[in-house]
Amino acid sequence: MKRKKPTLTFGDALRRNRAVAFGAMVKPVGATCNLDCKYCYYLDKELQAPKAKPSDVMSDELLEEFIQQYIQGNQVPVVSFCWHGGEPLLAGLDFFRRAMALQEKYKGDKQIENSLQTNGTLITAEWAQFFAEHRFLVGVSIDGPAEVHDANRRNRGGKPTFDSVMRGIELLAINGAEFNTLSAVSAASERKGQEIYRFLKSIGSRFMQFLPVTEHVKRIEGWPREVIVSPDDPDSHRAEWSISPAAYGRFLNDIFDEWITGDVGTWFVQMFDATLAGWCGVRPGLCAFCETCGDALVVEHNGDVYSCDHFVYPEYRLGNIAADHLRTMFESPEQFRFGLNKRNTLPAECSRCRYLHLCHGECPKHRFTPSKSDPNERINTLCEGLAAFYKHSEPYMLKMRELLEAGQPAAMVIPWARQRMGMSF
C-alpha cells in the first residue's frame, strides 16, 4: 500500500534553510475609494466595520513602522512594495514622498521596487512625473472600451469613469511612467474577449491581467443596493454582473487564439504566463494557481495585518504592526495553516483532474460550487471555464514548452499555431 505523503508541519517549515521572503499589500487608505464599482467587495466591507472616512490615512508613525519592518523582515536583495486600496492615491502625493524617503532610510544595500494599483481617475501630471521619477509600475484598472468599462465602474455620483481613466493613462504615457492593466471580467465582458484584448493593446498595455468577477449578493435593510456577501449565506444569490464559468472559458479562449497566432513574446497576459509555467513545472506568478498560498500579507491603514486580501475578516487577523512584527506574523502557525489549507482542503474531484498541476483548485475564495461527486465538498465555481481553457490551449502550451526546453523562444510557436488553426501566413 502506497504511503500517504505527510502534511508538512509548521516546525518542519521553520527548519528549512532558506532566506525569508514574503509579500505585503499595503492599503494606506483602507477600502476608501472615490468610485462605487458594482462588483467591489472592498466597499461592502463597510457593513462589517466602521465606515472609513477620507481622513483615515495611515499615520506617519505606522508608515515608518511598516516600511522598516518590511525591509528588515525580507532576507532578499530586492524588496517589492505593493500599494493598494481602495484608491491609494487618496493618501496624497506627500504621503508617498514620505514613503520614498523612508524606503531610502531603511533600505541599506537592498534594492527597492514599487508597484501601485489605481483606478486611474486621480492621476495628474504631477502624479505621473512622481511615478516615473521613482520607477513605479502602475497598474490601472480598466475593463475595456467605454461600454464595457462604464457598465460597472462608476463614480460616487453614478457617472461613467472611462474618460477620466483614459486621461490618466495618457498622462502616464506622456511622462514615461510604466503601466499595465487589470481588467475585471464580468457579464459585461461576455463574448467581447478579442474586442477587449485589442483595445488594451491599442492603449499600450504590454502586460494584461484579467480578473474574473463571481460574487453573491443579497438585499440588506437600510442599504441602498444589494451587497456582496458570502456564497454560504442562505439568502444570497449570484450577482447579475458575475461572469458565468462557460462565458469565462470562452473569453480566455477568444483572447488566446489571437495571442498565440501573433502576439507571443510581444504582448503578455498573466493567465497565459501562469498556465505555461504550470506546464513547465515552474511556480506560477499568480497565487491562485499555486499548490499552497499565504506568501502575501495585507496591511490595513490602521496597521492591522490579515492573511490575504480576499480574507480581510476578523478570523484571519494576525495582529497589528504597532505591537507585532510583520515577519513574526508571516512565520506564525496561523499563517502557515492558512497557506496549507489551500492544498489540505482540496476537493477529491480536483485531485482526480488532469489539470490539477495548473489550477490546484484555484483561489479558495471561489470554492463554493457543490462537487458532482460529493455535494458536501465545494469546487471552484469557475472550474468549467478553466477546464475549457486548459483543454483548448494545451497543444499550444506543450509546443511552447518543447521550444523552451530546446533553448528557443516561445514566440516561435506562432507559425506552428497559425498552421494548426488553418490560417494563412
TrEMBL record:
<protein>
    <submittedName>
        <fullName>Anaerobic sulfatase-maturating enzyme</fullName>
        <ecNumber>1.1.99.-</ecNumber>
    </submittedName>
</protein>
<dbReference type="InterPro" id="IPR047207">
    <property type="entry name" value="SPASM_anSME"/>
</dbReference>
<dbReference type="InterPro" id="IPR058240">
    <property type="entry name" value="rSAM_sf"/>
</dbReference>
<keyword id="KW-0004">4Fe-4S</keyword>
<keyword id="KW-0411">Iron-sulfur</keyword>
<dbReference type="GO" id="GO:0016491">
    <property type="term" value="F:oxidoreductase activity"/>
</dbReference>
<dbReference type="InterPro" id="IPR023867">
    <property type="entry name" value="Sulphatase_maturase_rSAM"/>
</dbReference>
<dbReference type="Pfam" id="PF13186">
    <property type="entry name" value="SPASM"/>
</dbReference>
<keyword id="KW-0949">S-adenosyl-L-methionine</keyword>
<dbReference type="Pfam" id="PF04055">
    <property type="entry name" value="Radical_SAM"/>
</dbReference>
<dbReference type="InterPro" id="IPR034491">
    <property type="entry name" value="Anaerob_Ser_sulfatase-maturase"/>
</dbReference>
<keyword id="KW-0560">Oxidoreductase</keyword>
<dbReference type="InterPro" id="IPR023885">
    <property type="entry name" value="4Fe4S-binding_SPASM_dom"/>
</dbReference>
<keyword id="KW-0408">Iron</keyword>
<feature type="domain" description="Radical SAM core">
    <location>
        <begin position="15"/>
        <end position="246"/>
    </location>
</feature>
<dbReference type="InterPro" id="IPR007197">
    <property type="entry name" value="rSAM"/>
</dbReference>
<dbReference type="GO" id="GO:0051539">
    <property type="term" value="F:4 iron, 4 sulfur cluster binding"/>
</dbReference>
<dbReference type="InterPro" id="IPR013785">
    <property type="entry name" value="Aldolase_TIM"/>
</dbReference>
<keyword id="KW-0479">Metal-binding</keyword>
<comment type="similarity">
    <text>Belongs to the radical SAM superfamily. Anaerobic sulfatase-maturating enzyme family.</text>
</comment>
<dbReference type="GO" id="GO:0046872">
    <property type="term" value="F:metal ion binding"/>
</dbReference>
